[in-house]
Every structure is written in C-alpha cells, then in structure tokens.
Amino acid sequence: MSSGKLLNIEPLKLKFPFELKKHISCSLQLSNKTDAYVAFKVKTTNPKKYCVRPNTGIVMPRSTCDVMVTMQAQKEAPPDMQCKDKFLLQSVKTVDGASPKDITPEMFNKESGHVVEESKLRVVYVSPPQPPSPVPEGSEEGSSPRGSVSENGNSNGSDFTQVARGFTERPEAQDKLAEARALISRLTEEKNNAIEQNSKLRQELDLLKREGNKSRGVSYVIVVLIGLLGIIMGFLLKKT
Fold first, then answer.
1. I need a labelling partner for 147 at 20 to 30 A (CA). Which of 2, 172, 192, 237 fits?
2. What is the tens place of the pLDDT at every residue in 128-171?
C-alpha cells in the first residue's frame, strides 16, 4: 500500500493472471485520507495496451474510489513473463464540491505551482490458477492412494480422499443406474404380458357365456316340444 499525504493506494503492483487472447482486469482502490476533495489522474507508459476506467476522477473526503485497469487481449506471451509497463497515479487537492467534469490537465501541472502527489505502479504477470489434477502424480493402477505433501510438510490427505471418493462413487452410480433401467424394462415387459393375458381371459369368458346361453335356449325348446307332444298324445287317446 502506498501511503501518501492525500491518497492511500492499494495495491502498488498490478497483478494480471496472464492468458493469451483474453481481456484481464485488475482493480485499484484509492482512499482519501484528508477532509478535502482530491482529484486524481492515471497515466501509463503503454496506453494502447491498457484501458483505465475511470482514468480521472474525484475522491471525496474520507471516502474511497475503485479504479479498474483492463489489459487488452494479447496474442503472444512476453519473454520470461516479464513486463516493463508502468502506471503513474497523480493526485491533487481541489475545491470542495468538485466533480469529475471540473478536472483539467492544468490541475496536474507542477510548473503552475500545484502540489501534485505521484505514485508509480508496476505491472506484474502471474500464472493463472490451475485446476486441480483429478489423478495425483505418481499414482499407479492397483497401488494404494497416498495423500500429497505440501511445502510445509503437512499431508493433504483430505483433498486426495475427496478426489478418490468422487472417482469411486461414479462407477457405483453408473452401475446402480444400469440396474434401475434393467428393472424398469423388466417390470414394463411383465406389465404388458399381464395386460395381454387379461385380455385373452376376458375373450374366453365372453365366449363361454355365449355358448352357455345357446345351450340353455336349446334345452328350453326341447322341453316345450315334449310338452306339446304330450298334449297331442293325450288328445288323441281321448278320441279313441
């Protein structure tokens, strides 16, 4: 942190996680330590490479202001990840109630008698964070897993356990899913077979009912005929 008379600047090194063909941003926080309005201006040695928003502004008394510095997408990585770009932040007291519209280049001109504070900021490239490796280096198939050891000598067994648990749970979940699918398929097939058997039984029952009705009708006709025959025989016997 830079501790001037007017502003505190955090950080003094602009750290960019360098990646090719990507816009990368880094923020600055300016804190006004005074009871006066402070105007600021940000300059850089490579204006085509960086975008600063806002590059000028007012920090009100005892308040803070955030400045966003964005590096344009780069096509090539610099040698050894070294960067010579620099920034210069100038600050000066201004009248109470001033707004960014009141800022002029003359305010930061030392030759005009203005008391201008200047802070230099460096640009540092850092490697982007790497995702954790799913399989620890040096592990072999069939060998017992071992926790990794950090720089301070402490074992990171919990991290490895979580990774190993994720790998052991996935095959089991896939097996359970396959078993569930097979069970659903078998139950569906049995359900269809049961529906088909039920339909066949209903058809056979209807057929039996129709045949039973026909046989009953024939028996009734025979009984009537026998009755009529008896009446006729009786009538003939009376005549004789």
1. 172
2. 777 676 665 555 554 544 544 444 444 455 555 555 555 445 66
Rounded to whole angstroms, how far apart are CA atoms 202 and 62? Answer: 91
58-87-17 Cα angle (round to 5): 105
Query: DSSP states of 21-38 as a string?
Result: T--EEEEEEEEE-SSSEE
Beta partners for 90? 41, 118
CA–CA dist 201, 239 (Å, integer):
58
Place of tokens 């975008």: 51
Produce one character per residue of 181-202: b if its CB has 16 or more CB atoms within 10 Å, e if not. eeeeeeeeeeeeeeeeeeeeee
Instruction: Enter the pTM of the model.
Output: 0.53
2, 9 contact by CB (below 8 A)? yes
**Which amino acid, residue 15?**
K
Single-letter amino acid, residue 226: I
- For 230, the enclosing helix (H) or strand (E) is helix 157-239
In the numeric block, the tokens 């990840």 are attached to 81
My answer on whether omega of the bond before 78 falls inside 30° of 0, hence cis, is no
